[in-house]
Here is the input.
Amino acid sequence: MLEYVTDAADPRLADYTRLRDVELRKSLEAERGLFLAEGEKVIRRAIAAGYPVRSVLTTRRWLEPLADALGDAVVYVVSDETMSGIAGFQVHRGALASMERRPLPPMEAVLTGTPDPRRVLVLEDLVDHSNVGAIFRCAAALGVDGIVLSPRCADPLYRRAVKVSMGAVFSIPYARMDSWYDGLSRMRELGYQTLALTPDQTAAPIDTVKMGDRVALLLGAEGDGLSSRWLKEADEAVCIPMSATALDAGVDSLNVVAAAAIACHGLMRSSTRS
Here is the structure.
């Protein structure tokens, strides 16, 4: 269903306006139960994952490449100039889709689902959407079974997170903790060994730790890292060993995405699932 629109202020395009206003978008998307997928590949992955399409905003150039995936969805067609005026930036991949959110499963469903999860990540209070998206991409690429978010962690379905993840947020199960205070204890009740990743070089190198059948790797916020409560409560603290040269030069840690990629590789080394 094609509808040609020439005015960036057209009320039919309300789902797509002021994309740079993070606080507005978070409240608007939660209120309307939607999220935005950007670019042909990401839109296709969202549809394939079963998210219903509310509408699509695109330019003439991208109509044909997307046509087979959109079915009877409403498609708003605009010029390149109008697209930039609506989004507030150049949409290089030419298309945006407003998708319906689905209810998140409870944490227990992700930790005990089918097939039996063995290796999961737990993200504590990461607030940068790009970092969250990149970690989802690392986790999906390396075979992590699921991700649990603390209550204050950034939304994986925010447009920037979806874009950076290249749609990996649609392929890996995730849930949000109901309570930060007793979330780890509940994980242990479900049989998970909790490992807290820290830059502290006195912690056990992650590649040397004996891992059990079910392991949850805890990753902390940008800058501050894991809270003291979670560091103390975890079964064991682990680190990524840094070279002596780097330490002497004052480089004592990696950014959270690089650390997550290396740690995910270490986490998966003893998984019994191929």
